[in-house]
Amino acid sequence: MPRLLAVKMLDKTFTNNGFSNIVVDKSLSSSNLSIQDKRLCSVIYYGVLERKITLDYIISRYSKKSLNKLDISVLNILRSGIYQILYLDSIPDNASVNESVKLAKKLKVSSASGFINAVLRNFIRDGKTYPLPKDALKRLSIEYSAPQWLVDKLLIEYSKDVAINMLKSSIGKVPTFFRINNTLCTDEECIKSLGLECKKIEYLPHCYELLNGDITSTEVFKKGFLHIQDISSQMCCSALNPKENDIVLDICSAPGGKTFTISETMNNTGKVYAFDLHQHRVDLISQGAKRLHLTNIVSQVGDGSKFNEKLPQADKILCDVPCSGLGVIRRKPEIKYKNPKEFDSLPNIQYKILETSSKYLKVGGELVYSTCTLNKAENEEIIEKFLKENPNFEGVSYLESLGEPFGNYKTTINPKYFNGDGFFISKVKRVK
């Protein structure tokens, strides 16, 4: 049953701090649920993850016990019940209540059945509404289900309008973009064979938005005619602007989306060296390259922070460093619930990777530094420090033809511009 599995997945995620995509993939692939039930399970699971702060605020108004004293399964039954009542119009309220009460027995917390029933029915009686706090910070936190530290950070580092737009984009439906593999087929051939509703993105080559359907189950996907990649990541590759027969290093590559776009942009010529710290992630790059029939990719284990004298001097380098991921919360909502102190060590790691990577670049070569975060300490501050300490490099403008927000050597891509993930891109050139 989809609701039961969703609650078990939530228990696992909040108990073990698991990654949502891994939890979903493992749980759904080993279940006997129908496609429709898997979809409902996934919707409830991700919906609760995304809206947890809002849901907990509502539950706390009806529970005499503090939420941290509730059994984790009871709390997740309540969260999933409130989520269905508030956000899933296709499910009758009574069904949401009754199914939630049944879950208590299945998860061996039958003693909480009456409590679960009372909380959910009282919320319905109150018109499924809840008063927001008067305090502005708390209000934004509850409204957009974002921790107060994140709301505060965005308001400090960006204007109020931009910060609120970022918060809005962190919840709700997530768009799916893909890139057609120009080394195997034309856009027309791919779209005709795909048979799903798509929208062409005119300002990026071979880029489309999927409007419905599961693209990974199609023969077109299996044949390697395309790969899924967010539009911001595709812009990052366009900023790098690799040419045929270039030598390119992709320093922190896994799972390989940018590597594949770089390879395709080069028409499968030259060499793209793709690295990751762990073999199992390097294997993901190799598997993807094989599916896409890209033969100019060399994937191997490598530590971006340690210089490897065996590597060749490169024409182009992509330095897409590990980051806090604050720009991809809509895809990985569990990031919101991390302790922000966990991010404090990242700038030192990022700078070390950037500094080491720059040593592989030829004179006249270009390097793109990028992250999928909105934290300025991991973005602007890193690149400014690098340019200050490395006078043999200078900033290079890119993608000027796309207009705002481009036209500089460093850009924060706010989701409002292209409906893509929050992203930072900076481009520098070695001049001597």
Highlighted features:
alpha/beta; single chain; four-stranded antiparallel beta sheet; eight-stranded mixed beta sheet; 45% helix; 15% strand; 17 helices; 432 residues
What does this structure look like?
With 432 residues, the chain is an alpha/beta fold. The chain has 17 helices and 12 strands. Strands 5, 6, 7, 8, 9, 10, 11 and 12 form an 8-stranded mixed beta sheet that branches. A 4-stranded antiparallel beta sheet has the order 2-3-1-4, sandwiched between helices. It starts with a helix and ends with a strand. The model has no long low-confidence stretch (mean pLDDT 95).
Order of helices and strands: HHHHHHHHHEHEEHEHEHEHEEHEHEEHE
Count of discrete alpha- or pi-helical segments spanning 4 or more residues: 17
Report low-confidence residues grouped into runs of 5 or more: none
Major sheet attributes: 8 strands, mixed
Rg on CA atoms, Å: 23 Å
Strand content: 5-15%
What is the tally of beta strands?
12
Structural class: alpha/beta
Shape: globular
**Secondary structure: helix percent:** 40-55%
Whole-number mean pLDDT: 95
- How far apart the termini lie comes to 63 Å
Blueprint (SSEs and pairs):
Elements: H1 2-16, H2 20-29, H3 35-60, H4 72-87, H5 93-106, H6 113-125, H7 136-143, H8 148-157, H9 160-169, E1 176-180, H10 187-194, E2 198-200, E3 207-210, H11 219-222, E4 226-228, H12 231-240, E5 247-250, H13 257-265, E6 271-276, H14 279-291, E7 297-301, E8 314-320, H15 346-358, E9 361-371, H16 380-389, E10 393-395, E11 410-413, H17 415-418, E12 423-430
Parallel strand pairs: 5-6, 5-8, 6-7, 8-9
Antiparallel strand pairs: 1-3, 1-4, 2-3, 9-12, 10-12, 11-12
Helix pairs in contact: 1-2, 1-3, 1-4, 3-4, 4-5, 4-6, 5-6, 8-9, 12-13
